[in-house]
Amino acid sequence: MTKGKRTIHSKIRAVDLDAFEQRFSRRYRIKKIVNAIISFIIVFCGVSAVLYSIFVFHNNLFNRMRFMTFDGTLFTTLISLLSGIVFLREARDGTEVTNRNVYFLRLSAATTEFVIFIVVMVGLTPLVPDLPDVTSYTGIMMHLVIPTLMVTSFVINDAPIGRLKPMEPFYGTTYITLYALIMLVLFGLRILPSSLAPYSFLDFDRTGWGFKLLCLTGIYIVGYNVALALASLNRLMSWLWFYDFSKLFRGASPRKKGDK
Question: Most distant CA pair in the chain: distance in Å?
Fold first, then answer.
């Protein structure tokens, strides 16, 4: 290759690299802005659902906080508020500031919401006596809308940290672990009467420790696998923001006669 041809090809590569960097930077900022918007929508849905429950349904806040769905919504709302602020800063600066701890908090929120969604779907079957509320505004927001937004936001928008080690999905069960421990202490030690148990399997007047631990272990196993699946999907799907979809619509250029 002559020096002239080498210079021309070098210029072409430089131009392509500049265009790639500009496209990457633009899509990165759009990705962060979209994730911030989704996070603030989750905040709105969470706050409005809680206020609707208290002031329209006249539910006692303390009584509602016995339920995993209610507490999970508060947890996800707080995480989404903090995440939205961070995403806006990342969009402004064009740099990633989130770390593994933030990733695992987001994973925990997404896992919590997906488990809530699973529990709701199972609760709609005749096998479960505790029928979830999926008809009121609060029920729709907490059981359907927020889980869908949180899981979608995490899977598609969060920056992956690579393949998780075998013990790391347990970070995704942080909220589930805290909720289970608090409920077992409150009802197992009779700090609260069994009549206030949010779910039938937590009623110590009807079932013993063995059944409760069995149910919570099942939920915990589901939570671990959900966290692992969501992190794996995030690792596979996050690249979609940077894929050039125009390639799918470009027809193959016709070959000239004599081309091999």
Answer: 88
Q: Which of 10-24, 65-79, 191-205 has the least mean pLDDT?
A: 10-24
Identity of the residue numbered 102: V
In whole angstroms, what is the distance from residue 134 CA to residue 70 CA? 13
Give, rounded to a whole angstrom, the gap between the first and last alpha carbons of the chain: 21
**Averaged confidence pLDDT in the chain:** 80
Q: Residue 2 is encoded by which pair of tokens?
A: 């002559």
Residues 6+ apart with CB under 8 A from 227: 107, 108, 111, 169, 170, 171, 172, 173
Taking CA atoms, 229 is separated from 3, 17, 44, in Å, by 52, 35, 27
Q: What angle do CA 194, 188, 203 make, to 5 degrees?
A: 35
Q: Supply 145's token pair.
A: 């809308």
**Alpha-carbon radius of gyration of the chain:** 24
- 88 against 213, higher pLDDT: 88
Phi first, then psi: give them for residue 53, nearest 5 degrees: -65, -40
Mind listing the pLDDT tens digit for each residue in 178-199?
888 888 888 878 887 877 777 7
- What does the domain layout of the chain look like in residue ranges? 27-240
CA angle 32, 36, 38 (to 5 degrees): 115
Task: Report the distance separating Cα 183 and Cα 49, nearest Å.
Answer: 23
Instruction: Please tell me which residue, 191 or 253, carries the higher pLDDT value.
Output: 191
pTM for this entry: 0.79
Return the axis-axis angle of helices 100-123 and 146-157, rounded to nearest 10°.
140
Query: At 110, is the pLDDT very low, low, confident or very high (cuts 50, 70, 90)?
Result: very high
